[in-house]
Amino acid sequence: MREVIATAPAKINLTLHVGEPAADGYHSLVSVFEALDVWETVSVRTARAPGIRVTTDVWRADGTRDGEASTQIDALPPDQNLAGRAVRTLQRLAAAGPWANTSAGVAIHVDKRIPIAGGMAGGSADAAAALVACNELWELGLA
Q1: Which of helix, strand or coil describes residue 87?
Q2: SS3 category, 10
Q3: Non-local CB neighbours of 32 within 8 Å, separated by 6+ positions
Q4: Looking at residue 45, which CATH number applies to its domain?
Q5: Considering the chain, what percentage of its residues have pLDDT values greater than 90?
Q6: 87: exposed, middle or buried (C-beta count within 10 Å: 0-12, 13-18, 19+)?
Q7: What is the extent of the structural domain holding 123?
Q8: Which residues contact 43 (CB under 8 A, 6 or more apart)?
Q9: Helix %, strand %, coil % for the chain, to 5?
Q10: In the chain, how many domains are there?
């Protein structure tokens, strides 16, 4: 099994304009933001079992692990986690590309240090980092 690690920075919105929902249910956004010196680490590795598995360690501001929050997030299906959903979408879109013939699964692990639901882009940054790491694995021919 191979692994690629990416970081996912936090941010705060200085301005945020939310547009009307599109047909897919998502809204267009226009934002001016400031990156913060807080980030999460997203590890993506190939797995023998097919499919996507997401695990999370949630860390409190005092540096201790929040076992209850970690367990709750781990209990969610991958499609209810933005990182899992992003990788699943990548797999579907890659049906005709170099990734189409891989049978390897993907294991994603997030060391979560950005406050949950704090509007600081923790989930969306994790999704982007997971895509970067997953793409690097496949481009290197490791998946």
Answers
A1: helix
A2: strand
A3: 13, 14, 15
A4: 3.30.230.10
A5: 59
A6: buried
A7: 3-9+37-139
A8: 3, 4, 5, 108, 109, 110, 111, 133
A9: 30, 40, 30
A10: 1
Length of the chain: 143
- The single residue listed with the structure tokens 């709750």 is 72
Specify whether the CB–CB gap between 40 and 125 falls below 8 A: yes
| Of 36, 45, 47, residue with least CA distance to 8 | 36
How far apart CA 83 and CA 97 sit, in angstroms, is 21
Using DSSP's 3-state secondary structure scheme, residue 57 falls into strand
Burial 36-45 (b: 16+ CB within 10 A, else e): eeebbbbbbb
Ranges of the chain whose pLDDT falls below 70: 1, 95-104, 141-143
Residue 40 in tokens:
């999460």
C-alpha R_g of the chain: 16
Q: What are phi and psi of 84, to 5 degrees?
A: -65, -40
**In the chain, what is the greatest distance between 2 CA atoms, to the nearest angstrom?**
46
pLDDT tens-digit map of 108-136: 999 999 988 888 988 999 999 999 998 88
Task: Tell whether 26 is covered by a domain.
Answer: no
